[in-house]
Specification:
By secondary structure, the protein is an all-alpha fold. Helices cover 67% and strands 0% of the residues. It has helices at 4-41, 46-55, 59-80, 86-93, 121-133, 142-152.
């Protein structure tokens, strides 16, 4: 028997797969494009090929160029996505749908406070840092009261 939790877990997995595809496939295409550009550089006239070869001789510069080509590939296809057939989007971006990321809801307690146990460690840490930064404010300040209310949970 499939439960609601099983369905959410399957959905989460499929969202992870979509996200992975939408990251890896454009990176592969961008890398392939950068490689093709490097191959084309070999047939350019020496006036163009020599400075290009000198610039790309550094591993750091080559990595930056590859990253720039990947970013350009992704940006161009994200712009074109609404205007091209779905099958083409799958080929160039890995999936025709964008992943959706579910937010983990915070649980409200009976007195209206947020159960801080449901917040991520990062969010909890940020709230504590914010409260520490507000230490100089009047304790009756609504922001201080609200943070104290959340942090008391």
């Amino acid at each position: 028997m499939t439960t609601h939790a099983d369905t959410r877990e399957s959905l989460a997995l499929s969202e992870r797969v979509v996200a992975l595809l939408r990251t890896a496939v454009p990176a592969l295409w961008g890398t392939l494009s950068a490689w093709a550009l490097a191959q084309i550089a070999g047939v350019l006239p020496p006036v163009l090929a020599d400075p290009l070869a000198a610039a790309l001789g550094s591993d750091v510069v080559a990595a930056v160029v590859v990253a720039a080509v990947i970013a350009a590939w992704y940006a161009a296809w994200r712009w074109a996505e609404p205007h091209v057939p779905e099958w083409l989007v799958r080929v160039v971006l890995g999936s025709a749908r964008t992943p959706s990321y579910a937010l983990t809801p915070a649980r409200l307690l009976d007195d209206g406070a947020v159960d801080i146990a449901f917040l991520s460690a990062s969010a909890r840490s940020t709230l504590h840092e914010l409260r520490d930064a507000l230490a100089g404010l009047d304790e009756d300040d609504p922001l201080v009261e609200a943070l104290d209310h959340v942090l008391q949970a």
